[in-house]
Structures are given as C-alpha cells and as structure tokens.
Automatic annotation (TrEMBL), chain A:
Assigned keywords, A-Z: Cell membrane, Membrane, Transmembrane, Transmembrane helix, Transport
Membrane topology: Multi-pass membrane protein
Main location: membrane
Pfam families: BPD_transp_1
Keyword set includes Cell membrane: yes
Name of the protein in its database record: Melibiose/raffinose/stachyose import permease protein MelD
Database matches in InterPro entries: ABC_transporter_permease, MetI-like, MetI-like_sf
Residue stretches spanning the membrane: 7-35, 63-91, 103-124, 150-175, 196-215, 264-281
Record domain ABC transmembrane type-1: where: 66-277
SUPFAM superfamilies given in the database record: MetI-like (SSF161098)
Species, as recorded: Paenibacillus plantiphilus
UniProt keyword Ligase, yes or no: no
Compartment annotation: Cell membrane
Entry's family note: Belongs to the binding-protein-dependent transport system permease family.
TrEMBL record, chain B:
Topological relation to the membrane, as annotated: Multi-pass membrane protein
Keywords linked to the UniProt accession: Cell membrane, Membrane, Transmembrane, Transmembrane helix, Transport
CDD domains cross-referenced by the UniProt entry: TM_PBP2
PROSITE patterns: ABC_TM1 (PS50928)
ABC transmembrane type-1 domain ranges (all copies): 70-261
Coiled-coil spans in chain: none
Subcellular location: Cell membrane
Pfam families reported for this sequence: BPD_transp_1
Family: Belongs to the binding-protein-dependent transport system permease family.
Protein name as it appears in the record: Diacetylchitobiose uptake system permease protein NgcG
Transmembrane annotation, as ranges: 12-35, 73-95, 107-127, 139-161, 182-207, 242-261
Organism: Paenibacillus plantiphilus
C-alpha cells in the first residue's frame, strides 16, 4: 500500500511541476517585470519600484481601455443573457422540429470567433451601407466600424451572435430540469405567464443564471479575437480592449514592463469581480 | 389542459424559425460570396448565382496555402486532444482518490483557482519563457493546451470519478494490480462519457484558438488556420470571393464534425459547464 501511495504522487507531481512552470511561474514573472523598466528586447533593465503602477493610474489611454472593456462586457452580458434565455424558453416550449432548431442555434459555438468577425466585418463595411444606399436611407449608409460613435456596436453584435449559442444550451438544460407539474399547478391557480416566469422558471434555473453571468462576463472582459477581426482597437482607440492593449503595446509598443503592471492590476480587478459576482449571485440563489 | 399538451405551438415555432435565420444569415452569405465572381457579387451578394465558381476554392487554397495551415491545425488539435485525455485523466484520478490527503486537496484547489487568472497576465511573460526553452512552435503550443487544460478538466474528472465506487479499485488491487494497472484496465474504460466531454471541449478550443498561436508560434509557416487567416488578411487585400472561400474552408471542418456529432457535442458542452 505504501508503494501505491508513491504511485499516486508520481501521477500528479509532473502535472504540478508543468502547471507551475507554464502557468504560475509566468504570473510571478509578470509581477517581477512590472517593477522594472524592461522594453521586452534590451539586454538590461533596471528596477523602478512602483513607478509603472503610478503611471498606469495616470494613463488616459488605459482608463479609456478599461472604460470600453467594462461597458462592452456589461452591456453584452445583459444582452446575451436576455436573448439566450428568451430563445431557450422558446426551444423548451412545445414547438415543432425542436432538435433541428437547437442544432442551428448552437452552431456558432463551434466556429472560430476570428473568422466570424471577418465575415461580419464585410456585413458592416459593405453589405449594410450598400443596402441603406439602395433603399434611399443615405444617412445610414456608412460603415459603423469606421466611426468612433458606433464601432462598439459592431463588436457587441458579433459577440452576441457567437456567445448566445453557449448560453442558450445551458439555459435549455436548466429549463429541462423543471418538472412540468409545477407549471400545471400554477396554471390551475390562474397565475399569469409573467408571474409564472418570475415565481417558478427563474428561481428554478438560478444556478444556470449564475454560471452564465459569471462565464459571460469573464469571457467578454477578455475580448480579443473580435477586436482584431473588426477594428484593431480603432478608430482612434475607441474599441481598444484591455487584452488587446496589453498585446499591442506590450509586444510592439516597447512598453513590456509597463503593460505587465497593467496586467497585474487587471488580474486583481478580475479576481475581485469574479468573487463578488459569485458571492452575490449565490446569495440570491439562496433567497429565491 | 390535455389538448394543450398535445398540440404544437406554431406561433413560437415560427418565432424560433425566424430567430434561427439570424444565425444562418452570415453563413448563407459566406457561401454565396464564396461561389461568385466579383461581377456577380457586385450584382447581388445574396442571390443564388446562375453559375457557381467552384474554382474560387482552388484559388483560395493556393493563395492562403490552405493545405499547410489545415495540416498544422489538424496535428495540433489532434495531439492536444489525445494527450489531454491520456494525461489529465490520471491526474484527475489520483486527486479524486486521495482528496482527503492534504497535498492532493491543495492540488485540486491550486488547479481550479487558476481558472480565475486572466490570460493577459500570462501573455507577455509566457512568450519570453517559451522562446527561452525553444518551445515557440507546435510542440510548445500542444504543451500549453494540455497543461492549461488541467485547470478545468480537474473539475470534470474529479466530479465524475466521485460517482465511480472505490470498491472497483479495491477489487482490482486485491487481485494484485498496481495503481497504474488499475487505472488503465479498470477506471479509464469507465471514463468514456467524461473523456468525450473533455475531448470535445479541447477540440473546439484548440481548433478555433487564435491568441495562443498568435503569440507562441514564431514562424508564419507554423500558422494554424485562424492565424493563417489573420496573416493573410493583414498582408494582402484580395477580392472578397477568394477571401470568403477561404473563410468557408476554415469553418467547414468544425461544421462537418458538428453535423456528425451534434448530440455528443451539445451534451459534452453542457456537462462541462454544469459541473
């Protein structure tokens, strides 16, 4: 039995070492670099203490990236969850060709977000302007991705198109756990559909709501592929997400250490948000 | 009540059908542009063409070096899936069977807490690290998929293994089997459903991933499909028919896999998320 215990350790030690080496170590390395002035290429660097952090807090472009990323993530999380819960309830109703439609709605989940972004790029830059031109609505005949006011909308649309797939399937799984006799009891009591939703459906799928909210928010705060495919952060950096800013400035902008400090702050922000969200939503689950 | 239960609700069916058009529209448009000549596109993007230009695909294959990128994606995805299942499963097994011991409990929380770490903080240092170890290539990419996968797969395997009674292990060990033999001969064959879930999630991730190939792969000829599309887009401006033919070819393998294994994939993703 002693020997067996040793084998169990042998099973996990390599995984532990690898995970530490490729995941935890780079995190520590990132924290280390954030206290230097390294540009990413030079042979030498110096320690600069908290200078990078102080500068990050004074940096307009970083505030702008946080502003965009958070507004985008919150708005998209709300839209995705409303749309996907609505569609999931439709799919859960007594409809024809249920499996066929379920298959279609889930399809975007298996597609590359980058390529989906390129396809939508064409819709925004060519198809829609041409369409509005043809129906004599010339005020609308412009490429939204080229304007600082509306470029964010393109990013939201692509993200919603792709992300609802996953949320729909999850909500559908949740709705299917509700026993139908609960609804029968309520319709005998004469409850309206609206009441039925808030008093039966929603409380019953609360755990699924929590998972969807937390996962959506976390994914959208990392927005990268869709930014690359649609706007490259522009125009005038109006759609610069935090991930994309760290990537562009960190690698090619020569501010490797500076963006490391930014990413450390971002790490702390994400951890706080995830914990708050989980705590809050789970408490609501209990109260429901 | 009883009549309501039997008949289909056509209003909702129609609404759901209308909604599904939003999902299908960009894909339909992609197919239409991919098979037209520039003149036909100028005439109408969405109309079904009188003449289908299949040669667009041959041209797109040539321009984007599609075969090569496809091979890269295929190898990376296949090895990531196989190695993830073969390694993460026994790590999950060891942790699940010793979860009461301090070290294994610590490992469980260590792996799972990594799910909260946003990738940007790893992004800059990992590039330097991979280059230092000469892992800025396919091997390195596969290693990262397998290693990063542990964080979430730990969740899945430990959750699943809790439902398998330990009497199975004990019976095998009384018969003289070692832990390794017990795992491969008794436990692993029983992990079918959860291996399928892990395999499907890894496959979707590795095939569609753009960010890791973008930062890790050091040479353009190593590019996987999404990265190849990106390199192609940023270097050349091409007529839309060729570009869309190449998008379609890049999306098609996953669509085909999805059509064949739809039920499995949907179940796999749900299992993965609900755990």
């Amino acid at each position: 039995m002693k020997k067996n215990a040793r084998i169990f350790y042998m099973m996990v030690i390599p995984a532990f070492v690898m995970f530490f080496g490729f995941h935890t170590f780079p995190v520590l390395l990132g924290i280390f670099y954030s206290f230097t002035d390294w540009n990413g290429f030079a042979q030498n660097y110096d320690f600069v203490g908290f200078k990078n952090y102080l500068n990050v807090f004074k940096d307009e472009s970083i505030y702008a990236a946080y502003g965009f990323t958070f507004q985008f993530a919150i708005l998209t999380t709300v839209i995705v969850n409303v749309v996907s819960l609505t569609v999931a309830m439709g799919l859960n109703a007594r409809i024809k060709f249920k499996n066929f439609f379920r298959g279609i709605y889930f399809l975007p989940n298996v597609l590359s977000l980058l390529i989906v972004g390129y396809i939508f790029n064409y819709i925004f830059s060519n198809m829609l302007p041409n369409f509005f031109e043809n129906i004599q609505m010339k005020d609308w005949a412009f490429n939204i991705l080229g304007t600082t006011e509306w470029a964010w909308l393109g990013i939201v649309i692509v993200t919603v198109w792709q992300a609802t797939a996953f949320n729909i399937i999850l909500y559908l799984a949740g709705l299917q756990t509700i026993p139908t006799d609960m609804y029968e009891a309520s319709s005998i009591d004469g409850a309206s559909k609206w009441k039925e939703f808030w008093h039966i459906t929603f409380p019953m799928i609360a755990p699924f709501f929590t998972i969807n909210m937390v996962l959506s928010m976390k994914n959208f705060l990392m927005a990268f592929d869709q930014i690359v495919a649609l706007t490259s952060g522009g125009p005038a950096k109006s759609t610069m997400s935090i991930s994309y800013l760290i990537y562009t400035d960190g690698f090619s902008g020569g501010s490797f250490a500076y963006q490391s400090a930014n990413s450390v702050i971002y790490f702390v922000v994400i951890v706080i948000i995830s914990i708050v969200q989980l705590k809050y939503l789970q408490r609501r689950e209990m109260n429901l | 009540m009883i009549t309501r239960a039997k008949t289909a609700n056509w209003t909702i069916t129609l609404l759901i059908a209308a909604g599904s058009l939003i999902v299908l529209f960009p894909l339909y448009m992609t197919v239409m542009i991919a098979v037209k000549s520039p003149a036909q596109i100028a005439e109408s993007v969405l109309a079904i063409p009188a003449e289908w230009h299949w040669s667009n695909f041959a041209e797109a294959v040539r321009m984007t070096n599609f075969g090569h990128a496809f091979k890269n994606s295929f190898i990376v995805t296949l090895l990531a899936v196989v190695l993830t299942i073969l390694t993460n499963s026994f790590v999950g097994y060891a942790v699940a069977r010793n979860i009461k011991k301090r070290f294994f409990k610590f490992l469980y929380y260590y792996f799972v807490s990594a799910l909260f770490v946003p990738f940007p903080i790893i992004m800059l240092p990992i590039v330097k690290e991979m280059a230092y170890f000469n892992l800025n290539n396919h091997t390195g990419l596969i290693v990262l998929y397998v290693v990063y996968g542990i964080a979430f797969n730990m969740f899945l395997y430990v959750g699943y293994l809790r439902s398998l009674p330990t009497e199975l292990d004990e019976a095998a060990m009384i018969d003289g089997a070692s832990v390794w033999q017990t795992f491969w001969k008794v436990i692993f064959p029983l992990l079918g459903p959860i291996n399928a879930t892990v395999g499907i999630l890894t496959c979707i991730w590795a095939w569609n991933d753009f960010l890791l190939p973008l930062i890790i792969l050091s040479k353009p000829d190593m590019a996987t499909l999404p990265l190849a599309q990106y390199i192609f887009q940023s270097r050349f401006s091409v007529s839309y028919n060729y570009a869309f033919a190449s998008y379609l070819m890049a999306l098609l393998p996953m669509v085909l896999v999805y059509l064949v294994a739809q039920r499995w994939i949907i179940n796999g993703v749900v299992q993965g998320a609900v755990k």
